[in-house]
Amino acid sequence: MNLPFEPQRQTQDYQASDAAHHIHAFVDQKALNTEGPRVMVRGEGLYLWDSEGKRYLDGMSGLWCTQLGYGRKDLTAAAAAQMDQLAYYNMFFHTTHPAVIELSELLFSLLPGHYSHVIYTNSGSEANEVLIRTVRRYWQVLGKPQKKIMIGRWNGYHGSTLAASALGGMKFMHEMGGLIPDVAHIDEPYWYAQGGDLTPAEFGRRCALQLEEKILELGAQNVAGFIAEPFQGAGGMIFPPESYWPEIQRICRQYDVLLCADEVIGGFGRTGEWFAHQHFGFEPDTLSIAKGLTSGYLPMGGLVLSKRMAEALVERGGVFAHGLTYSGHPVAAAVALANLKALRDEGIVRQVKDDTGPYLHKLLHEVFGNHPLIGEIQGTGLLAALQFVEDKGTRKRFANENDLAWQCRTFGFEEGVIIRSTLGRMIMAPALVASRAELDELVDKTRIAVDRTARIAGKL
Ligand code: PXG
């Protein structure tokens, strides 16, 4: 076998050892132990290789995070240089270091001008944990300590730690480990599944008005913030109708409720804008960031604050009793800095907006626009979802849509492409450096997987 890496051990040997010691994410571990996980051993550009030497086009950027693709020597060189110079120091003890200072400078040069400060974390979940405390602290400083309740959305995803999963709206997660007090939820704006006879515009407004109803029910004097992903990611790559965000913004302003955008997936160029809220045209007070900040090469996240919030916390707040051992980790910061420089200087975000994004969506509409299994194509930039449907006229979905989508994803792996399934939707979010030829391959292999699924579903 001619492999682009040196196999160290047999796949079965890796799998047996993994089964003996490792609990994986979101899986029935016993079933996985029987099946044996795929062992990924190498990545280059958009491609991955497993321990059997099979090559995959990664249509999901790892977990929506490898904006620059795999194997970037500038990122590994930045990490190595920083490790040699200063592998670790902390943000306690009244200290800082150049890597984090330069990262913040660059980050705020890319963000709209009404943001000024960031609290660094190691992940998106931590960013949202910090969000809850920061938002509550902000209202304390403003003399409104009773403003504590956070409103999220059903089927939203904000991470897997206790408070982050409580902000999220995955009920099956709430059932495993509980909720926290002072969190409420409203419905998601998923028109295709829940819009009934309403037009998307009517449905978008209806969903947004639920926020107003919830604020009035809880009392605006008790509500601290509303958190949402600009488009839902883990929940199925769902874009809200255009009427949704303007109405949400109006309500948050009217009732003095902070608007908190979770940009963990949408940030750093995914939509063709630097941040997804810019694509949808609204102005959040906070941004939770992670994933694409380092292209996933090292764990790093953060909570970005508006000038208004930062001013209150910094000028009037005194000590904010918060800090993590690895906040602003120098090696992660050096990698993030190299990553953001590459995204900016190589014109990658612009390329997604002007070239590869429109190209992907043109292809998808050509290939799937009249496909018998596909009822809707959503997305923008290098981000897309294909909605499975049983009856296009009524938007009736298959009772077993989850199984069908999982099957489609499995066919994808067999064909050498990684796409993600959520309920009845197939999701694509390739690295932002994808070329037109790689997008051709992504769509072509996805078409084969979808056609194979359509045959099982009796649609071809
Ligand atoms: N917010 C959002 C919007 C996310 O998508 C998190 C926060 C949490 O980030 P960390 O770094 O703590 O994982 C996420 C994570 C999926 C999938 O299957 C998505 C995520 C994580 C795992 C799986 O789409 N997003």
Brief characterization of the structure:
With 460 residues, the chain is α/β, with parallel strands linked by helices. The protein has helices at 11-21, 29-35, 61-64, 73-85, 98-110, 124-141, 162-167, 171-174, 191-194, 200-218, 244-254, 276-280, 307-316, 330-345, 348-368, 401-415, 436-456; strands at residues 40-44, 47-50, 55-58, 115-121, 149-153, 183-186, 223-228, 258-262, 286-289, 301-306, 374-379, 384-388, 417-418, 420-422, 425-428. The protein folds into two domains: 38-71 and 347-456, Aspartate Aminotransferase, domain 1; 74-345, Type I PLP-dependent aspartate aminotransferase-like (Major domain) (Aspartate Aminotransferase, domain 2).
Nearest-angstrom radius of gyration?
A: 22 Å
Strand content: 15-25%
In the CATH scheme, what's the topology name of the largest domain? Aspartate Aminotransferase, domain 2
Largest sheet: 7 strands, mixed
* Number of beta-strand segments: 15
Describe the model:
This protein has 2 domains: 38-71 and 347-456, Aspartate Aminotransferase, domain 1 (Alpha-Beta Complex), CATH 3.90.1150.10; 74-345, Aspartate Aminotransferase, domain 2 (3-Layer(aba) Sandwich). It has helices at 11-21, 29-35, 61-64, 73-85, 98-110, 124-141, 162-167, 171-174, 191-194, 200-218, 244-254, 276-280, 307-316, 330-345, 348-368, 401-415, 436-456, and strands at 40-44, 47-50, 55-58, 115-121, 149-153, 183-186, 223-228, 258-262, 286-289, 301-306, 374-379, 384-388, 417-418, 420-422, 425-428. Helix 10 (200-218) packs parallel to helix 11 (244-254). It has a 7-stranded mixed β-sheet, sandwiched between helices. A 4-stranded mixed β-sheet has the order 1-2-3-13. The two termini are 37 Å apart. The chain has 460 residues and is of the alpha/beta class.
